[in-house]
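Pilot study result, target chain (608 residues):
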Amino acid sequence: MGKNYISIGIILLLGLTAYSQPIIKKNDYFKIALALPQRHNNVEELEPDLIRYKQKGYTGIWIEDDFLRWTWEKDPDQGFGGNWRLFNMYDFTFSKDKKIYVDYLTKLCALCKKHDLDIYCSFWMPKLTDELIANLEKDNPDAIGIRQYGGSPETSVPKKTLCTCKMGKGLKFIDTMVQKFMNDFPQVKGLKVAIEDNECYICDASCPNSKGTEIAEHAANLLETIQQAMLHVRKDAHFLLYPWFWQESFKQAVLSRLTGEYFVVTKMEMNSRQDIEKNIPGDRLWDCSILTDQPGPDFLEWVKRVGADHIINMTPTGTNIDDFFLANPPFPGRLYRYFKNLQANGVDKFLDFECGGHHQGANEEAVALFNENPDLSETEFLEEIAKRMFHNKKARNFAIKGWQSFDKGFACLPIGISDNGCWGNSMSGRLGFSWAMCIATPFERSCFGEKDQMHKIHYFSPYNFFTTLLSDRLSFHFNNVLKYFEDSYRNLSIADELEGSSEVSQVELAAIHGQVLSVQSALNWCAAAKFAEKSSRPNIYEDIIRKELELTEEMRNLTNKYPWLWTNNCWHPHQTPLSQRIPHWNYEKWKNTFDAKIDFLQNFVELP
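Predicted structure:
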C-alpha cells in the first residue's frame, strides 16, 4: 500500500510542519515512545514520517510486520492463509533470502540514526518456517521439539517446535541467532518478544527432550536465552516481554530467570469490563480493549509485580481492537484520559498499538501535547490541539464538538460477546475485529446462521456475530453509536468547510466518514441476519442489499481517495476480508475487497 499526503511529507522535509507548533514546550513526559510506521514498499518512503515522529515527541519506532515478501499467493509461512506475515529473526540471520532483510533493516537503521530515533524490532518466537524445519531436520534434528496443540488431550495433535527444553539443542540455535542479529544490527536498541500465538509453540511435557520438565520452565528457558544472548552482545540492550498469550504459571517462572533491566508490554484496558446494556435483560455483554476509561486487572497486576518503571504500554493511537481496519479514529480526548490513567499509575513509556500503523491527525497531536504538558485539563487539552490543527477559530469549536461526539459514540460499541451466555457454547469473541469487516464483506444468504461458525468461514467473520439471535441486541448498540458518529460527522464537516478543506481538516473528516459508513453497514448486517432466511419477505432483504451496495460504493470512493483510511499493519486490509470462505467468493479474481463485494452483490444476488 503506497504512501499518501506526499505534499505534507515535502513540507516536513523542508523543516516546516503542517500544524501549528506549541509556544511553550515543557520537559518531555514520555521516556520511551515508539511509533509504528505505516505500510510501505521501501524505506525511503518513511523519511517524512520519521521527521514528523521526532517533532511529535516520539523517541523511536518499532517494526513487526513483514511487507517485504508478503504475496497474494498462498504461502505456508504466512498467517491465517496469507492474511499477514510477521518478521522472523531467522530471515535476518540464516535464511536463503536474508539479503532482502539485511538490506532493508540496514537502511532503516541508518535513517533512524539520521533523525535521532531509536529502533526496536519485534519477533514472535520461536517461529519455524518450512525452510528452517528442512534445515534442522537435515543438520540439527535435536533442535526440533514437540508440543501438543489444540482441543482436549484426546483431540490435540503434535506440532513441531524449535526445542525450548534444556536437553534439546534448540536453545543453542536461538542463542546463536540472537547474538548474530544483535551484532549485525548495532543500531537496534532492543527486542520485543512474544511467544505462543502465531504458531510460536513452546515445548510441553510431551517433548522427548523435556525429561519431566513442564511448559512454564520451557518458556523461561527461551526468554532467558534470548535476554542473555542480547546482553552478551550489548549490555544496554532493552528486552521487551509481551505476555499476550502467557499462561499464569509463566510469570513467576520467567521473571525469576531474568537479570538486569527488562520491560513488560501491557495493554492498559485489557479484560476491563463495561456495562452498556442497562436497559436490555439477560446476561451482560463484556467489553475489553479501550472503551472503559479504566485500567484493567492485567495491567494493574503487572504494575504491582514489576513496578511502573518496567512497563511499556501498547496504546491505540492509530487504530484499535474495535475497528482494526479503520485508521485515525478521531478521539484525542479519549487518548488524553488513557494517558492520564497511565500517568496515575506511574507509567511513562508506550508504543503504538500493533495492528494500526501510525498516521498524522488529532491522535498524534494528542501524543505530542501530552508529552509536552501532561498537566492540562481535558478541556484545555482539546482546545490546544484544535488551535494547532485549525487556523479558523470557529472551526476549532466545531472540531472539538466532533471529537467529543465521536468519543461518546465510541463508548457505545459492543466489542466482546464471548461470555454473555447467548447460547451454550462460547463465541469467537472478536466482534471488535469483525464489525469493521462488515463494509468489506458481501451478504450471502447461505452463510447467515444461528450461531458462531468459528473457522467454517473465517475466525473473525461478521457471519459469526451477526446472527438472528443477536441481531436485535447489536442493532440497539450500533444505533446508539451511529447517533453520536453522525453528530461527529456533521461537526467535523463544518470545521472542514470553515477551514477551507485543508489537508489537516480533511484527515479528520475522512476518518469519521469511514467510521459512519462502517457503522451503517453493521446495521445493515443486523437487518440482513434477521431477514436472510425469511423467504416470505424477500423484498426486505433486497432493499437491504441495495442500501449496502450504496454504502460500499461510497466506501470504495473514499478509500481510493484516502488509502490510509482502510489499512492494517498486521492483517492485510484487503486480503483478510477476501479470505473468508464464502460460496461463490472467488478471491483470486480480485485484489480490492470493495470492488469484489460490489461485483459479488451485483452478480450473485437477484435484484429486480
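One observation from the pilot: The first strand starts at residue 32 and ends at 35. A full batch analysis is planned for the follow-on phase.
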